[in-house]
C-alpha cells in the first residue's frame, strides 16, 4: 500500500500515529542537521522532517538528495510543529520520517509548480501535465467535474435521460465548418463530426424520449477567435410536449440549482427581457446586468436645439456613469479617444457632469441650457455626482459603440464583480437576419427554429419582422445557453427551407432524414444547449476557458503537448484512398 | 401547457378529475357509437374513450379519423373502466374525452410500434426514431442512462474526478485502425480520433490527478465483426499510488454497486483466477462460470492404455455434462459432428456415460475398463447420471475446442441464465505474445503495461514467460473490463519499446510526449477500462449491444438512417487540400 493518508488530512488528531504518505517533493530546506521537505499530492501538502538525531542515517542521507518533483513514499510519525502555520490544514503537524523510498526521480521542471508560476502560456501548454499539478489548474478541473455532476444529478432527478448520440455523422449544409473523417471501409466516403447533436436530439423527440440531455463534445473547424476551441463541450437538452415557458422554467431551475450548489446563492427568479429591449437598453443581446448604466434615448430631448451633430442622427443615447462627475478633463479626453479608436469607431462623445450641487456642466453648454441637461439626467436616471456620456449616430452602430463603452467603464470602475452572478433570459429573437452579401435571409438561430405562432402569416409578407420562440440564457454578459422551440410541422419546415434559399433537392439531401421523420408524428418540442466550458469559467469567476479544459488547443487549433495535428505517412493516406495536395513543409 | 399528467400515471385515485394528456395514438377501436383509443407517451398508455352520447359531436367526428401514431392532445375526465386490465398501471381507468386537438398527423409507420414488431433489422435501423418508440428499445436506452449515472455517482463518491480528454489527438503506432481528421487550419495535417484516452489518462496521473474517470466515446476504423461498432463507449479509469490489489478492490466495489443498484444483487467477493488457471480450467480467458463443466486433464489416467489416439497427444481433457448420461446415441453423434465442423476443428469426441447405477459405458470401452473410467469421472467431478466428453490434441487448440463445446452445451442445456450474474477477475496475463508472422513480440495488453516486479529480470532472458500486472473483469463469459498497472519508469518503458521492436526514433515520434512526461516524476499508477455498451447489454440480460445504442451503425460502419458516410463535394475536398483516389461509384 502506497499510503495510509493523503497529504491534506493530517492534524493534531493524528499525533504520534505512524503514517505512510506518497507524493511529490514540493521543496526542501536543508539546515545541515535538519531537513524539511514539503510533500504534495492532489489533496494538500504535509511537512516532512528529517533530523540528524532521530532519523535513520541512510534515510537522512537520501533526504539530502531529494530534488523538486521527486516522487517519494515515506513512513513516519506525526509530531507537533514548533512553529505552526495556521493557513494550512496540516499546518500544526509535521511527519518525522523513518523510512523513505524513492518512487521516481524528476528532472528540474521547466517552470515552478506553484500557484503563481514563472512559466509562460506556451511553455505551460507544452508541459500541461506539469501545469495540472499546480493548484489553480487542478482546482479548475475538479470544479468542472463538480459542475457537470450537479447538472447530471439535477436533470436525472427531473426525469431527463442522458442519451449518447453518434460522433460519426453526416456533413451538414453549414458543412464548411465540419471536421470530416474519411472512412476506410467505405472508400471515398466521409463522416463528419457533429457541430452539435441538434438533429439527433430532435429525432429522439420524434422517438418519444421526451426529456433528453447529454454532456457532449462538439466540433467546429473554423478560424479560432481568442478563447475558442475546435472541440468544445455542450450540455445539450431537448423536451417534447412543451412550450417556451416550460423550457425557461426547467432550465432556470437547473441554473438556480447550479448557483446554489456550487456558489451557495439562494434561488431568485431570473429577469426576462426581449431581444428588442436588450438592444434598446444595453445595445447588446447578452447584457451584463450586474451594474446599471442602462441606455436612455434622448432624441426628443436633444434634437431641434441647434446642435447640428445631433439633429441629423437616427439615435442619441446616453448613460449615467455612477459617481464619475469628478472625472478630470484628462480622463474624459482619454475616454473620448477610446471611443474614437477604429475598434469602436464613434465620431465623438458628449459629456455632462451632474454636479453635487445640482448644477450641470457639459461639453455642449453652447447648445443646451441647465433645464435641457436636467431633462437628460432625469431620462438617464442620473443622480447628483454622476457623469452622463452621450453618443449619437445610426441606430445599430451607436448602440454597439455605447455597449462597448458601458462595458469598458464597468471594467474600469470595478463593477464586474466575478463573485456576483446576474443571470437573465433574453427572448423573442428575430427568426431571420438579412445577409447583404448573399442577398438572402439566414436563420438567426438555426433552420429548425419555430416562428412565434402569431407571426406565421408574416413569414409570407415580411419575413424580417418575424420573431422566433428563441431564447438565450445570459450570465454576467456572456451567453451561456441558447435554444428555441422547433418547427415540428413538415409543411412549415419546408417553407422555412424555401425562405433560407435551400432548393428542394438541397433540403432533401441534407435534412431528408429529419423531414422524413417529421412525417411520422413529430411532437411539439424545443430545447436548449449550454456551453459547458464557458459556463464553468464564469461560475469559476474567470473570463477565459482554457484553464478549465484539461488539454486545450492553442489559437491555431494545435495541441502543442502532443504536437497534433501532424502529417500522415503515405501508406495511411493510400489506405484512405486520399492524396494530399498541400505543398510539402519546409 | 400540453399535459397535466403523463400516460403512465392515472389510476382510480384520479377519478372524476379533469386531465390533459398528450401523446401518440397507439391504436383505436371504433364500435360505431363508441371509440376507444390507446394514447401512448414515454411513460405508458392510457385508454381514451369517445362516446356518441357524452363526447361533443365535433370531437367524436375528429376521433373517427385518428390514425396510428397521430400526435394528439386531449382534455377529459378520468372515469372507471367497466372491464379493467390488471396488467396495466392505468388499467382501472379510462379518460372520457371532451376536447381533442390534433398536434400532428402521421403516415402509417413502416412497421408496428409494438413490443414485438413486424419490422426487420434493416428497416428498424432506417427508421430508428420509430424503433425508439417501442418499449424494448426505449427501455434499453433508459437502462443505459441509469447504469451510467450509477457509475458516475459511485466513482464521484469515491473521490474520482471526471476529466474530459481531447477527441482530436495524434495518430498512434497502431494507427492503422485510427480514424483520422484532416485539419483545415493546418493544411496537409491530420488529427486522429482516440482509440482510447490511454496516454491522456496516464498524463493526468503524472499531473497528480490521482483518481480519474471518464465515460467517453472511442473510435476504431476496422473491419467490423458482428456486434462491434466503429464508435463505442468506455468507462475509462486510472489511479495513482496504487497497486493491483487497490484497483481490483476499487472496481470490484463499483461492479458490486452496479449489480446491487441495478439488479438488487447482494455484494459477494468476486473469485479471482490466473490467466493460466482460466486457460487450464475453461480453455478461455473469459470463462462463463455460471455453470460448471470445468476441464479435467486426464493425460496421466488415459495415456499408456493402448488407445493410440490419446497416447500421441499433448493434452487429453474432459468435462462432465450434468445429467446428460441419458443422451441418445443420435444426440451424441450430433455433438461429435458439431465438434468436427471446420469452425471447431476437432478430430473426434470420446464420451463416457456415468450411469445412474454406478456403471460406465463409453465409446472407448475397448481400451479402458470401468476402473479407468471411474478415475476419469472422479477427476471430472462427475456424478452418476452425468456424461463425460473428452477431447485430445495440441494444448491450445484442444482447449479452444473444449471451451467452444462447453459453451455450446451450456446454451443447449439452458445453463446461461441471463438473470444470473457471475463476475470474476482473471489476473496474471502474459506481458507479451509472440507473433509468428512478424517474428516479434506484441504487447498482449498495450505497450505501457508493467511486468510483474519479480519478473523484471526475465524480460532479458525469457520475455515470453514474463507475467504482467494485468487483469480482466469477466462477467458471464464476456470481458467487461480490462486494465493493468502501468510502467512509470522511463528506463523500463524504453526497454519495453525495444522488445516490441520500436526503434528509438519510432518510440520518440509516437510516444515522445509520454516519455518526456515520465522524466518529471511519474507516480506509480494503473487503471482499467470497461466497455459500457457490452456491460449494459449483459446487465440487461442480452447478448447483443445494438439496441442499447440509440443510433448504432451497421456491420459496414454505416448509419442507414442518415446515410453516412457519404462522398464530399469537390469544394470541401479542395479546402482540405485533399484529392480522393477512390474510383467513382456507379
Portion of residues in helices of chain A?
25-40%
- Count of helical stretches of chain A: 17
Number of strands of chain A: 23
Any idea what the CATH architecture of the domain at 291-412 in chain A is? 2-Layer Sandwich
CATH superfamily of the domain at 291-412 in chain A: GAD-like domain
Quaternary structure:
homodimer
CATH class of the domain at 291-412 in chain A: Alpha Beta
Q: Can you describe what's shown?
A:
The structure is a homodimer of 586-residue chains. With 586 residues, chain A is α+β, with helices and mostly antiparallel strands. Among the domains of chain A are: 12-104, Nucleic acid-binding proteins (OB fold (Dihydrolipoamide Acetyltransferase, E2P), Beta Barrel), CATH 2.40.50; 291-412, GAD-like domain (Gyrase A, domain 2, 2-Layer Sandwich), CATH 3.30.1360.30; 423-523, Bira Bifunctional Protein, Domain 2 (BirA Bifunctional Protein, domain 2, 2-Layer Sandwich). The first copy, chain A, is 28% helix and 24% strand. Chain A has 17 helices and 23 strands. Chain A has helices at 57-63, 121-126, 128-131, 135-157, 198-206, 244-263, 275-282, 299-302, 308-311, 329-340, 370-379, 395-412, 458-461, 490-499, 504-517, 532-539, 570-575, and strands at 18-30, 34-41, 44-51, 71-80, 93-104, 161-162, 180-182, 190-192, 211-219, 231-240, 272-274, 296-297, 315-321, 350-354, 360-362, 387-393, 423-427, 432-435, 440-443, 470-475, 478-485, 525-531, 578-580. The first copy, chain A, has an eight-stranded mixed sheet with strand order 6-9-10-22-21-20-17-11, with helices on both faces. In chain A, a hairpin with a 4-residue loop joins strand 18 (432-435) and strand 19. In chain A, helix 4 packs across helix 16 (532-539). The interface between A and B is large, with 127 and 126 residues.
Amino acid at each position: 500500500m502506497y499510503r495510509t493518508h493523503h497529504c491534506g488530512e493530517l492534524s493534531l488528531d493524528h499525533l504520534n500515529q505512524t503514517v505512510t504518505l506518497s507524493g511529490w517533493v514540493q521543496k526542501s530546506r536543508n539546515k545541515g542537521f535538519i531537513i524539511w521537505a514539503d510533500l504534495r499530492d492532489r489533496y494538500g501538502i504535509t511537512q516532512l522532517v528529517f533530523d540528524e538525531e532521530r532519523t535513520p542515517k541512510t534515510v537522512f542521507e537520501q533526504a539530502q538528495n531529494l530534488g523538486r518533483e521527486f516522487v517519494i513514499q515515506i513512513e513516519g510519525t506525526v509530531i507537533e510543529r514548533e512553529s505552526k502555520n495556521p493557513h494550512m490544514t496540516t499546518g500544526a503537524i509535521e511527519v518525522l520520517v523513518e523510512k523513505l523510498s524513492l518512487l521516481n526521480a524528476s528532472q528540474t521542471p521547466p517552470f515552478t509548480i506553484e500557484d503563481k508560476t514563472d512559466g509562460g502560456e506556451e511553455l505551460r501548454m507544452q508541459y500541461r501535465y506539469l501545469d495540472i499539478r499546480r493548484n489553480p489548474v487542478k482546482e479548475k478541473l475538479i470544479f468542472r467535474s463538480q459542475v457537470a455532476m450537479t447538472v447530471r444529478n439535477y436533470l436525472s432527478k427531473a426525469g431527463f435521460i442522458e442519451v449518447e448520440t453518434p460522433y460519426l455523422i453526416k456533413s451538414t449544409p453549414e458543412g464548411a465548418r465540419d471536421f470530416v473523417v474519411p472512412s476506410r471501409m467505405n472508400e471515398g466516403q466521409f463522416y463528419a463530426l457533429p457541430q452539435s447533436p441538434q438533429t439527433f436530439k430532435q429525432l429522439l423527440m420524434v422517438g418519444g424520449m421526451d426529456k433528453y440531455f447529454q454532456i457532449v463534445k462538439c466540433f467546429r473547424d473554423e478560424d479560432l477567435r481568442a478563447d475558442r476551441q475546435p472541440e468544445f463541450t455542450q450540455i445539450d437538452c431537448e423536451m417534447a410536449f412543451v412550450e417556451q415557458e416550460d423550457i425557461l422554467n426547467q432550465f432556470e431551475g437547473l441554473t438556480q440549482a447550479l448557483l446554489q450548489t456550487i456558489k451557495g446563492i439562494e434561488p431568485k427568479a431570473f429577469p426576462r427581457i426581449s431581444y428588442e429591449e436588450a438592444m434598446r437598453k444595453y445595445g447588446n443581446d447578452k447584457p451584463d446586468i450586474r451594474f446599471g448604466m442602462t441606455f436612455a434615448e434622448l432624441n426628443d430631448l436633444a434634437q431641434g436645439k441647434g446642435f447640428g451633430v445631433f439633429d441629423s442622427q437616427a439615435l442619441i443615447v446616453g448613460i449615467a456613469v455612477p459617481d464619475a462627475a469628478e472625472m478630470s478633463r484628462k480622463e474624459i479626453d482619454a475616454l473620448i479617444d477610446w471611443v474614437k479608436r477604429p475598434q469602436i469607431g464613434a465620431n465623438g462623445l458628449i459629456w455632462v457632469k451632474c454636479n453635487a450641487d445640482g448644477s450641470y456642466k457639459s461639453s455642449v453648454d453652447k447648445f443646451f441650457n441647465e433645464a435641457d441637461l436636467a431633462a437628460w439626467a432625469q431620462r438617464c436616471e442620473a443622480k447628483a455626482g454622476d457623469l452622463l456620456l452621450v453618443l449619437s449616430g445610426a441606430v445599430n452602430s451607436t448602440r454597439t459603440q455605447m455597449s462597448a463603452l458601458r462595458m469598458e467603464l464597468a471594467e474600469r470602475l470595478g463593477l464586474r464583480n466575478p463573485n456576483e452572478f446576474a443571470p437573465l433570459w433574453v427572448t423573442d429573437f428575430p427568426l431571420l437576419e438579412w445577409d447583404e452579401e448573399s442577398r438572402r435571409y439566414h436563420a438567426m438561430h438555426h433552420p429548425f427554429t419555430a416562428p412565434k405562432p402569431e407571426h406565421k402569416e408574416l413569414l409570407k409578407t415580411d419575413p424580417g419582422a418575424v420573431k422566433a420562440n428563441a431564447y438565450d440564457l445570459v450570465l454576467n454578459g456572456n451567453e451561456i445557453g441558447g435554444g428555441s422551440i422547433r418547427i415540428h410541422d413538415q409543411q412549415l419546415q419546408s417553407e422555412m427551407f424555401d425562405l433560407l434559399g435551400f432548393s428542394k433537392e438541397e433540403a432533401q439531401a441534407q435534412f431528408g432524414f429529419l423531414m422524413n421523420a417529421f412525417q411520422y408524428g413529430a411532437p411539439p418540442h424545443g430545447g436548449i444547449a449550454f456551453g459547458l466550458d464557458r459556463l464553468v469559467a464564469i461560475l469559476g469567476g474567470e473570463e477565459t476557458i482554457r484553464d478549465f479544459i484539461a488539454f486545450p488547443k492553442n489559437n491555431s487549433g494545435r495541441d502543442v503537448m502532443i504536437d497534433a495535428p501532424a502529417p500522415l505517412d503515405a501508406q495511411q493516406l493510400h489506405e484512405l484512398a486520399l492524396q494530399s495536395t498541400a505543398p510539402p513543409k519546409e
